[in-house]
Amino acid sequence: MSDTLLSPSDLERADALVLFGITGDLARKMLLPALYRLTESGKLTVPVIGVAAGDWDDDALRGHAREAVVAAGTDLDEAVFARFAAGLSIITGDFADDATFARLRDAVAGFGFVTHYLAIPPSLFTVVAAALAAAGLNRDARLVVEKPFGHDLDSARKLQDELSTHFDDDHLLRVDHFLGNRAVESLMVSRFANTLLAPIWHRAYVDNVQITLAEDFDVADRGSFYDAVGCLRDVVQNHMLQVLAFLAMDPPSAGNARAQGLEKWRVLHATRSMDPAATVRGQYDGYRDVEGVEPDSTTETYFATRLFIDNWRWAGVPFHLRSGKALAVTATEVVVELREPPLELFGGENARTPPNLIRFRIDGDTGIRADLVLSKPEGNTGPMTVPVGVDYAQVLGRQELPYENILYGAVAGDPESFAFFPAVLECWRIVEPVLDPADPPLPYARGSWGPQAADRLPGLRSWHEPGHRLFDDDRVY
Q1: Annotated binding site for substrate: which residue ranges?
Q2: Active-site annotation, residues
Q3: pTM, 2 dp
Q4: Do residues 158 and 215 both lie within one domain?
Q5: 181-210, pLDDT tens digit by residue?
Q6: Using CA atoms, how far apart are residues 311 and 229, in angstroms rounded to an integer?
Q7: Looking at the domain assignment, is residue 284 inside a domain?
Q8: Which positions ≥6 away from 123 have C-beta within 8 Å?
Q9: Looking at the domain assignment, is residue 409 inside a domain?
Q10: Which residues are annotated as a binding site for NADP(+)?
Q11: Domain holding 87: CATH number?
Q12: What is the pLDDT of residues 388-439, one digit of tens each?
């Protein structure tokens, strides 16, 4: 029992990881490569027991894992993979069959504490949780569930209630893989560890904030999944609002996940619900031709909106969010635009001094960049913008995959990379007014920046477009 609300949770370290859905798409693309990397770094020292349907055996799983690691672009080290493969095994059977869980109980017998990780469709979360409890596998165990956690506010509450009957809140972790991204965590570090930035992170200095999560690829072979979810539920309600929370929260009063979660809740609680009049939904040309997509689908592949945070730090500062598929570039970037100087001294009659921008690239070529204003050497030609900053890969080396941090936290009992449930509820509350609107989304061309209506969001002067790279791209300064 914690002494205070802000005391850190004392979570157990697991002696085995049970991975439901180990033969699925998420495991192949993300989880198995991340587990290999954890083995390489010495952080994964426990066996991994997969549970899946089908007729797989241990050798088939190990061959599949090798293919997944190679497909992820990893330079496979045979000695490392041998260590990884030695700890891999699989149990097959239907998740609705008690015999499957009886075999699992035998497989984990002798392990002191077990983490059950559900990389399966959300419709199966409660089925598996109940089956684990019926087999006594919820004792000395932790449950980790993938996103999405519900599909609206009521369903999130219901899912929490159902899972809580089998696993209490100290033994239930909710995945949002953006929280495992070190560049997202660096938003908080950059703000609170640098007194250079802390004083200006305030409505007195910040004019507006833009958060962009753009992808230049389409839904590919995920039509059936995506058409039932859409951009808002897929990335805005979770990933983008988590980024907003890191960006706008006040500093936590203690260095642990519980204190951090409370500050996230506070800033999200102060965030107004989305206004349909300040929201644009789009759908890229050709989306309805994708296999698995309904021919008359009104699912959005693009979403843009304006938010306000009604607290002392941010009152009156607009936060513009946008995300979409089949856009001009792939980039996840935050742009903080500072207020212009009170007097125009350098721009001249035909040009104004451009504002300072602080950019955080939190996916791909991650880093932080400030756009500063200098005088051009020709004289009398107005000021110019010069980027300065840090490329994280050059300075810090390889950044862990987000799922390395998620899986390590799941095994080690570190809740920092997981979503705080009261904050999850606030995220659903914020998006609720714009879920499933009656109006169809606006069409937009592939390779564009989405519907032109998004350029006319209330209060928006212009979007700051991310380049292909944070530095050394083709933008003109």
Answers
A1: 177, 215, 234, 325
A2: 239
A3: 0.92
A4: no
A5: 888 888 888 889 888 888 899 999 999 999
A6: 31
A7: yes
A8: none
A9: no
A10: 53, 94-95, 147
A11: 3.40.50.720
A12: 999 888 888 777 889 999 999 999 999 988 999 999 999 999 999 999 998 9
